[in-house]
Structures are given as structure tokens and as C-alpha cells.
Amino acid sequence: MGNRKIRYFIFGAVVMFLFNSIKTQAQNLENGKKIYETRCLVCHQADGGGVPNMNAPLDGSTNVVSSDIGRLVKIIKNGFNERVELDGLYYSNSMTPNPDFTPAQISDVLSFIRTSWSNKASKVTIAQVQVALKGNQKTKTK
Amino acid sequence: MKKGIYLLLLLSISVHFLANAQDNAGLTLPNGFKANLFAENIGSARHIAISKNGVVFAKLNRADKQGRTIIRLADENKDGVSDKITGWANYGGTGIYLSGNALYASSNEAIFKYQLDASDEVVNPLSPITVVTGLINRRQHESKSITFDKANNIYVNIGAYSNACQDKDRTPGAQGMMPCPILDSAGGIWKFDASKENQTYGDGKRYATGLRNVVGLDWNPQANKLYVAQHGRDQLNTFFPSLYTDAQNAELPAETFYEINEGDNAGWPYVYYDNFQHKKIVSPEYGGDGKKEGASDIKNPAVAFPAHMAPMGVLFYTGNQFPEKYKNGAFITFHGSWNRAPLPQEGFFVAFVPFKNGKATGDWEIFANGFAGTMDGTKITSTRNAKARPCGLAQGPDGSIYVSDDTKGSIFKISYQK
Fold first, then answer.
1. Is the confidence at residue B222, as pLDDT, over 50?
2. Which of A79, B2, B106, B403 has the most crowded Cβ, counting Cβ within 10 A?
């Protein structure tokens, strides 16, 4: 009888855990969307299309859907001010840094960006963001 | 019966042609004007110049598939559509200008000169003369647009490599540098002698300052003065959300069109022009609050346009084809905005600015619209969805005007029929 109780308890805990993780994920994307709309959309546009020659596109961009999560995290946190080629084109505007973003916020907005429009990349966990931000102070770009 | 079929065929063909002619390449124009595509898909066509024989030269921002960045388009059968397209050069850029039989073209750092023969073919495609070199190019606002006065002087824009001269560019809360160190070598118009070679900053003269980024500029032959159109600053709301709402940022600051005398200062980065208060307002990076007025010696615009629409080309119309009201007035191409988001984008048209005795009346009107390809009334919410973005402007020998698009590379020819 005690055994059964424990089993019920474990079953219940697993259900709760699954339910919560689904709920958290949904909240992450919703929160990521909100962050995108208030902080990113003005330059990268509502459809993630960017602005030709000026602001890099996020939709369909190889960098955005790449496995180099660390690079994306640092760009969001520190901004970006280098002339680099992106899918054969160059973009001239400096990207605004977001020093106030917490690891959770970066995880939310990156997850939203990587799974929105035509992008079908993996979501980004808070732990991945924390790893990427280790030692970030040293490599901080202007 | 057979006759009937032929008649039907003839009828359908003529209806087809009539429809095409009335299509005006998708543009909406004032009564009596028509438009057609002079060229399509030539690449990122920035500014254009047209010879007295009607040959069009377009400067590409990036090399086309054949690696060319200056495109020569001739209409040999005179049907209004280019039929012989050639090209040369391997540097991207914006500026192109014809002076006599010399063609001047700019990269983002230098100005080169080519000789044309009597049939407008380039004589020295691989060995141009370097007229000016070493101009600042730090990614942002890198276009070096050029125009000439009547005494063979070149006026070149050197855009500021910054939004508002903050100590950290485009960073919330970053202060404006005082004085702004960018202004000694950028953020203005420089003047050079077109007959000299290998000139750089020391050989030229800063003709006007306080201009964040000018892409469109032209010499007003009637007033004998330079006119420039400035791209106003971005992101007032992003960096100063306590002072500006999204809706205010979408309308501020005005895009401004100036009559320039030597030594003029248009005020960037210290002030911007507010088209609602009709005042020069101190920038928030320099202690402004959206109301405080800037110094009184700063130039006032001749015409102010809605914010962020990005004026790209200016043309003073000297032809005889268009109705009288257009003579000696200015056409201005607007590339269309991005920094109005989250509100819908605006621009993507050619405006006309009436002039009287060499002075702008202060009015303006939309001349040609529909470049974005959404005449059904839907708004562009993401700039990349605009099918065409007006950029270069030039006048043909018959008085038609040509408008280039730097997305896919269409050249629209706009004419008037009495």
C-alpha cells in the first residue's frame, strides 16, 4: 500500500514536472516575443527581415540559426560594430548593446528568434547563455 | 469566320499593348505623365547620369554577376527601353556624374574620372584618373555622392560614421561627445577641384558641416547654389524612452533639404529639426528634452519632410518636356523608411519641390508613387518587402526623368505627353 502511494506520488510529480516545463517553454517564447518587439523589432523589423545594407536580417540568416550560441549571446549583450559578411552581403549600422539583459531574457529572446519566421533552430537554455557569458567582461566589444 | 478570328486576335493584342502602356510600370503619376521600365535587374543601381545622346550610366553599390560596378545602358533603337548593356569597374559605390565628356564615379573612399569618346564609350575603363582619395569610410553612411558647380568643382558628401555622435554609438544613455570629433573629417560636404589629381582632405575644403548624412545633392543652376538633402538621426525613442514615444520617433526628426552657402552649419549632432514645432531642437544626447531650442546660427531647412523616409537623389529639372510648374524645381527620391517601426514604413516615392526664382516655396508633393509595389493600400511593415526603392535621379536629353532602384536594379523612365 505504501509502495503504491509512493508510485502515485512519483507519477504525479512527473506529470507536474512535464506540465510545468511545457508551460515554462511557452512562457519563454511569449516573453521572447515581447522582448523582441520592444528591443529588437525597430531595427530588425517585424518579420525579422532586417533592412537591406543597414540592419542584418535574422529570418533565414545562417548566423542566427547556427550552433554557435555563444557568439549570438555576446552580440545581443555587447552589441556589434564590425564589418563582416553575412550570407554574401554587408550591413553598415552598429548594433545597440543590451547590457541590462539577464541570462533568462537572452535565452527567451534568442529562443524566439531562432524558432520564428522561417527559422527552425533549437531553443537556447539559460545554462547555455550563462556559459557564453563567462568571461564576457574581458572580450567585451566597444 | 476567319476574318472574325483575326479581328479578335488583333483586338486582344491591341488591348494587351494598351494595358501595358497604361500600366506605367506600376507607378502612380500626375495626369499626362507616363512611365516605363528602361531597364530591369541590373543590380544595386545607386546614382545615375545621362549623356546628351541619352546613354545612361548607373553606379552599382555591389558588383553584378559579371563583376561590374558601372553599367552603361544605351537605347539604340530609341523605343524607350535599353537594348545594349555593358559595364566595367570593380568597386562598389554611389556617386556618378557626367561633366562634358568626362564621367566621374565614386567608391566609398575615392572619386575617379573616366574619358568618354564621341559615342559615349569609355576610353580608359581600367585606368581611371584618381581625382580624390582617402575619404573616410567607417561602414555607416559610407556613400560618397557627388555633384558639380559650373566652375568644375566637385562637391562630395562625407557622411558621419555615427547616429548622434554618442561616445558609444547607438547605445542607450550614452552622451554626445563635445565637441563632436567626427566633424573635422566627416558629417559635411567637401569641395575639390575636378581638374586636379590624387587630392585628399588637405587639398579640399569643408564647404558645409553639421550634416549627418547626405546622399542626394545637386547644384541649383538658377540660384547657382548647392542643395543637399539630409538623412536625419534615428532612434530617439530607443535611447531616450522617457522623452520620446514610438509614435513620436516615427515622426521625428524631419528629413531636411537645405540651400547651402559656403561655411553653413546644419547642426548635427547637436540639434535636429522638429517639423511640428518648426524649430531646431537640442538633441537628447546633448541635454535636450524635446523642447529646448538649439543655437540660432544653425541653418534652417528650405523644406522639411516627414521623418526617416531617406532622401537619396536630388535633381533640378531644367528640361522643356514637363509642364511649366516643374521647370527649375527639384525632384527628390525617397528610399523609404525603416526606423518608423513598429509603425508602418513610409516613403518609397519621388517628391517634387516647387521653386520660384531660385528659392523653394516650402511646399512639396508626391510626384511618383507605387515603387514599393503596394498600391492596393497595404502598408509596408518590413522594409525588405518594398519591391523597388527609389534612389538615383537624372534627366534625359528629351526632358524625361529617370529613376533608379537599388534593390533589384530597375530604371524607370518618366515622360510627359501633351
1. yes
2. B403
Report CB contact under 8 Å: B139, A83: yes
The answer to whether the beta carbons of residues B24 and B72 sit under 8 Å apart is no
Give the strands of the sheet with B401-405, arranged side by side. Answer: B33-39, B411-416, B401-405, B390-395
Residue B171 touches chain A, beta carbons under 8 Å: yes
**Residue B116 maps to which CATH number?**
2.120.10.30
Q: Is the pLDDT of residue B10 over 60?
A: no
d(CA B290, CA B249): 11
Instruction: Show the domain range for B45.
Output: 30-416
Q: How confident is the model at residue A7 (pLDDT cuts 50, 70, 90)?
A: confident
Indicate the DSSP class of residue A137: H
Domain count within chain B: 1
Backbone dihedral angles phi then psi of residue B266, each to the nearest 5 degrees? -90, 0
Whole-angstrom distance, CA of residue B15 vs CA of residue B391: 33
Residues B140, A94: C-beta atoms closer than 8 Å: yes
Nearest CB to A79 within list B139, B171, B338:
B171
Mean pLDDT of B324-345: 96
Do B169 and A41 count as a contact with CB atoms less than 8 A apart? no
* B192, HSE (Cβ side, Cα atoms, 13 Å): 27
Scored b (16 or more CB within 10 A) or e, B65-77 reads: eeebbbbbbbbee
The length of chain B is 418
Q: What local confidence, expressed as pLDDT, does residue A136 receive?
A: 76
Beta-bridge mates of residue B218: B227
CATH homologous superfamily for A32-139? Cytochrome c-like domain (1.10.760.10)
Are B383 and A93 inside 8 Å of each other by CB?
no
Distance (Å) from the alpha carbon of B266 to chain A's nearest alpha carbon: 22
Please state the ipTM of this predicted complex. 0.85
Asked if residue B6 has pLDDT above 80, the reply is no
DSSP A66-122: SS-HHHHHHHHHH-B----EETTEE--SPBPP-TT--HHHHHHHHHHHHHSTT----
DSSP string, B280-344: EEE-GGGT--SS-B--TTSPPPSEEE-TT--EEEEEE---SSS-GGGTT-EEEEE---STTTTSP
Determine the pLDDT at residue A15.
74
Asked whether residue A13 carries a pLDDT value surpassing 80, the answer given is no
User: Residue B307 falls within a domain, yes or no?
Assistant: yes
Please provide the average confidence, as pLDDT, over all residues in chain B: 94
